[in-house]
Amino acid sequence: MNRFHVLHILQAITILSRIPLSAGDHRSILWRGDSIAVSNAAGGGEHVLVSPSGEFSCGFYKVATNAYTFAVWFTSSADATVAWMANRDAPVNGVGSRAELRKDGSLVLQDYDGHVVWSTNTTGTTADRVNLLDTGNLVVSDAGGDTLWQSFDWPTDTLLAGQPMTRYRQLVSASARGLPYSGYYKFYFDSNNILNLMYDGPEISSNYWPDPFNKWWENNRTAFNSSRLGGFDTRGVFTASDQLQFNASDAGDVRVLRRLTLDYDGNVGVAVAIAVRVAKALAYLHHECLEWIMHRDVKPENILLDTDFEPKVTDFGLVKLLARDATATGTHLSRVQGTRGYIAPECWMVGRPVTGKADVYSFGVVLLELLRGQRVCDWAAGDLQQLASWIKERLKRDGDDDDGGEVSAWVEEEVMDARLRGDFSHVQAVAMLELAISCVDGEPNRRPSMNAVAQKLISLHDRGSSMRFA
């Protein structure tokens, strides 16, 4: 089972901020005959539904200039992360549009000219109210509390905790970061009862996960359970009837809000996820083993990916073992060992002590190559320190200007792998670039520890996708 592949496309997000609102601030129920107007969406109040706990909001969500969708989002997330949209492919006008629970029982979304863009198709029922529940589920129910329609049955690109993935539904990615329109990736149960990831593009369409060239049992799945049911719980554990299972990085903590999102792409997410695992492995060697272990030959050739995209740090032929109390002073090397282009500057100096910061330097080079998509020695023309100084100065200058757009444009045009064509999280890429530059600092004492590197990457990975975790 390609467990990593699903973790970079299906992004499990942990949202830590929980700020409940008082009951008097908002309402959680839209009664029969009532409506929510788009023109008042920014003002909140009576034109936004908020769940009783305050964790979810429902109303009009701005996706472009004068373009809105009727949506459910996480109230306290910094970017109002969306969990569900009614009209992702047909945004309505910013003035005059409204969502109304009509007296005929149907919840409808009308554009400024009265045209019905979307409806729950519950006309002729005894629908009495629309409730936004603490689960993030938007429910149309009758006076007796019986559910007539619910958003949990109509997911867009996201599942919430407790929301079922069934044979009749699929997740469809967004077309690009920040654009709500339906994209090319789909997550669904096929006719063999297996959960699949499909790329359904304008020219080609194919399943690519799990491995389509394997039999289902070779992918550690089962086709015998025809219930076709999946979902994840409040602990962050996803399970499905075909025996697929994967966990969030902090699985088990029930105090946090979670979502599972089918990402529009995830290429930088792949790089971050690989980097996290390699950094954690090196941090273990440096900080957790009984003896301090310095690898001394960290490079791409010694980082192997298995069929699950799990990286393995290999080739310990140059490893150096030291007593734990010698980690600060390091060791003196009698000769230069390692691979040119990845060797830290201090390793070339006879008589200078070498510490685990040499591995940090090598890892920083690998990070740069993950972002660039080519050898640093080819990119830097043999002078990495000059390249690092230039990048550091440019990042500092752009940071002083406080112009995030300019930083993103520069990173995309002059640093990132051109084959990505801009399809990556710019915020995540800049943070990863800053970390890489700190790792290749010419002075060992200014480099972060391997443990600090791992923790930084973990935070990037977990923030991940919405800057995605993946």
From TrEMBL:
Compartmental location: Membrane
Transmembrane segments: none
Top-level taxon in the UniProt lineage: Eukaryota
InterPro entries assigned to the protein according to its UniProt record, in alphabetical order: Bulb-type_lectin_dom (IPR001480), Bulb-type_lectin_dom_sf (IPR036426), Kinase-like_dom_sf (IPR011009), Prot_kinase_dom (IPR000719), Ser/Thr_kinase_AS (IPR008271)
Signal peptide: 1-24
PROSITE patterns: BULB_LECTIN (PS50927), PROTEIN_KINASE_DOM (PS50011), PROTEIN_KINASE_ST (PS00108)
Source organism of the structure: Leersia perrieri
Main subcellular location: membrane
Protein name: non-specific serine/threonine protein kinase
Residues annotated as domain Bulb-type lectin: 34-153
Known catalytic reactions: L-seryl-[protein] + ATP = O-phospho-L-seryl-[protein] + ADP + H(+); L-threonyl-[protein] + ATP = O-phospho-L-threonyl-[protein] + ADP + H(+)
An MF annotation (GO) of this entry: ATP binding
Biological process per Gene Ontology, one example term: response to other organism
Enzyme Commission number: 2.7.11.1
SUPFAM superfamilies, alphabetized: alpha-D-mannose-specific plant lectins, Protein kinase-like (PK-like)
Start and end residues of each Protein kinase domain: 127-460
Gene3D superfamilies: Bulb-type lectin domain, Transferase(Phosphotransferase) domain 1
Broad enzyme group: transferase
SMART domains hit by this protein: B_lectin, S_TKc
